[in-house]
Specification:
With 610 residues, the protein is of the alpha+beta class. It has helices at 3-21, 26-39, 45-49, 55-72, 75-87, 91-106, 111-129, 134-147, 156-167, 179-196, 216-222, 245-248, 250-254, 294-304, 341-344, 346-350, 385-391, 417-433, 438-451, 457-463, 466-484, 487-499, 504-518, 524-541, 546-558, 568-574, 581-606, and strands at residues 229-234, 257-265, 268-272, 285-289, 306-308, 323-329, 353-359, 362-364, 378-384, 399-402. The chain starts with a helix and ends with a helix. Keywords: Membrane, Repeat, Transmembrane, Transmembrane helix, Transport.
């Protein structure tokens, strides 16, 4: 082994370790490795930066824009409403239709985006049918993962593998090259979930009530608000009277975070959004969030002339009002990931207050404001519904899960849905016909979307998931570095020595297993970048066609069913589905083995080894 190869392998091991620890972020790791490969002299500057001009990378960015156009025009949301109507009260039909629609959408747009879009839809349907959300959330995530097996553009690993084939001098995959493999797996997944859902979400049906219209008592229980939510009446002699909240600095001085102000008026009450300009009056009822010790609260109440009262009359989750409660979830591309609630500046940025945090089945009360947010965390927010509406426009740092019916669906370009469908049809037609390269077809689709104003230019830039683009562009040089230093050939020779005597089918099985296991620790895109060259080199050394080997890697990269951290889509449904880690292992491992069996049968049959 040469010194250069040892250096590359060391950097690769270091990158995998940082990916597994998620420290720092994956896109930052990719940039660090890109710079390191240049500094070691293994790659030149043009070679290290070549990933940014790779057609596959540009294609992925374009597909994010097209997917956002489908969201902004309300097409995806209308499909969800259609699903609720067609399913009726039949749970089995609902699971089948849900998986078919999610897989179809995910085949042409980001699977993570599809899941984030459908979580609120599924929660409302579950509440309407009085089903436990857990019976639908895992079918949702599995269908999104399978969608990557349906088309070339279904997931970035497909494009990475296809580009690697072209880089090695072979024909890449076509738009529907994956469909003969993905469709049987999708049908298998639907059948499997119709059986497996019996062991998911065994909670009582009334636990789903929070999905569409959460009651205050339900939210108090779920988020342990009974420990930190208090209602205090402002006394006539209170030093707070006549002063604004900005001047009072109740949070910094006393740890009291004011969620809402209920003010008596003739004939009823006003529920006010507590801004810095809000002036406190005698008789106001303050809904406050306090996480300190009980003795500290008693001292603050006595000092400020406040009186604890029964909160029965305060229910923001009841009839639609200007202010209320809403549950939201943190998606993978949120700028809030890794920040504490305080650092997220919810009040100043969104006009909202965080009063609860749940991670899986665990609710946080102590240290809530300092806890670092993670993908899949659900937050309970208090604030004006108009502020929640604004938060769902453009790039969403959180996705609404539960909110009242008076919060309108956010589809700012709903009147241009036909044009969005037209642009999508043009893209698919151009890709299938082969009249232009795939990347050019996607760029044409983006221009059509922009020309019809399905999405504006600023929205198009915001819709691109730049961490994914940077991750792929930054990791692609590893493939070249391993080729230049002989690492790919060495890996291929090792694989052949290990299982080569058992035949090509054993090699395919080994590649599938190695890719799936590697995907447990690092992203499926990075896994494809590393495994595709090994698969192609293995086939070339044996004198076999590289296409079945490359297809096996691509399908395995999408088979991230085994743990809730194998893919962002699994992490997203963990909280809303109320799953434990073991639920994914129990349901996902057998299904991964079934997918592996189907792959090993179909790939050599449809893509001859010679």
């Amino acid at each position: 082994m040469s010194l250069d190869l040892a250096t590359v392998l060391f950097l690769l091991a270091l990158a995998i370790g940082m990916f597994a620890l998620n420290r720092p972020r994956m896109d930052a790791v990719a940039l660090i490795m890109l710079v390191a490969l240049q500094l070691t002299g293994i790659l030149t500057v043009p070679e290290a930066l070549a990933g940014f001009s790779d057609p596959g990378v540009v294609l992925i960015g374009s597909l994010f824009v097209i997917g956002e156009g489908l969201v902004r025009t309300g097409i995806a949301r209308r499909l969800g409403d259609w699903l609720a109507g067609r399913a009726g009260g039949n749970g089995g039909r609902l699971v089948a239709l849900l998986m078919l629609i999610v897989a179809a959408l995910g085949s042409v747009m980001s699977s993570t985006g599809v899941v984030a879009l459908f979580i609120p839809v599924v929660l409302r349907i579950a509440a309407r049918l009085r089903m436990a959300p857990g019976q639908l959330m895992m079918p949702l995530s599995f269908a999104a993962l399978i969608s990557g097996m349906l088309t070339l553009v279904g997931t970035p690993p497909n494009l990475v593998v296809s580009s690697e084939l072209q880089r090695a001098g072979h024909a890449g995959f076509g738009f529907f090259s994956f469909t003969p493999f993905g469709l049987p797996i999708l049908l298998l997944g639907i059948g499997y979930m119709l059986v497996a859902r019996r062991w998911l979400g065994r909670a009582e049906a009334d636990e789903t009530a929070h999905a569409a219209g959460p009651t205050l008592s339900r939210l108090v229980e779920d988020y342990r608000l009974g420990e930190c939510a208090h209602h205090l009446r402002v006394g006539s002699g209170s030093p707070l009277a006549g002063r604004s909240l900005e001047v009072l600095q109740l949070h910094s001085q006393h740890g009291l975070n004011v969620m809402a102000v209920e003010r008596p008026k003739r004939g009823g009450i006003d529920l006010l959004d507590p801004t810095g300009e809000t002036v406190v009056r005698p008789g106001d009822l303050l809904a406050v969030h306090f996480t300190g010790a009980a003795e500290q609260l008693r001292m603050a109440v006595a000092e400020l002339g406040l009186h604890p009262v029964n909160p029965d009359g305060f229910d923001p989750s009841g009839e639609p009002r200007a202010i209320g409660l809403a549950e939201v979830i943190i998606p993978p591309d949120s700028s809030l990931r890794g920040k504490s609630v305080l650092e997220g500046e919810f009040r100043s940025r969104f006009g909202l207050t965080v009063v609860g945090l749940r991670r899986g089945r665990t609710a946080w009360s102590d240290g809530l404001l300092e806890e670092r947010l993670q993908t899949g965390d659900t937050l309970l927010l208090v604030g004006p519904w108009e502020a929640l509406r604004r938060s769902q426009r453009g790039k969403r740092d959180f996705v609404l899960l539960n909110h009242p019916e008076d919060l309108e669906e956010i589809s700012p370009a709903a009147d241009r849905a036909p044009q969005a469908l037209l642009s999508l049809g043009v893209v698919v037609l151009l890709m299938v016909s082969g009249l232009v390269p795939h990347v050019l077809a996607a760029l044409i689709g983006c221009l059509i979307m922009l020309s019809f104003r399905c999405i504006d230019l600023d929205g198009a830039y915001r819709s691109i998931h730049w961490p994914t683009v940077i991750l792929i562009a930054g990791m692609l040089p590893f493939s070249l570095a391993l080729q230049k230093t002989g690492g790919i050939a060495l890996a291929a020779e090792g694989l052949i020595r290990l299982v080569g005597d058992a035949g090509p089918h054993a090699l395919l099985a080994s590649l599938f297993a190695a890719t799936a296991v590697t995907g447990l620790f690092i992203s499926n895109t990075a896994t494809a970048v590393l495994m595709a060259p090994v698969a192609i080199a293995t086939a070339q050394q044996l004198g076999l066609s590289p296409h079945p080997f490359a297809m096996t890697v691509a399908l395995s990269a999408s088979a991230a069913f085994m743990t809730p951290v194998s893919s962002p889509v699994n992490t997203l449904v963990l909280g809303p589905g109320r799953y434990r880690f073991g639920d994914f292992v129990r349901i996902g491992v057998p299904f991964t083995l079934l997918v592996m069996a189907v792959t090993l049968v179909l790939v050599p049959w449809l893509l001859p080894l010679k």
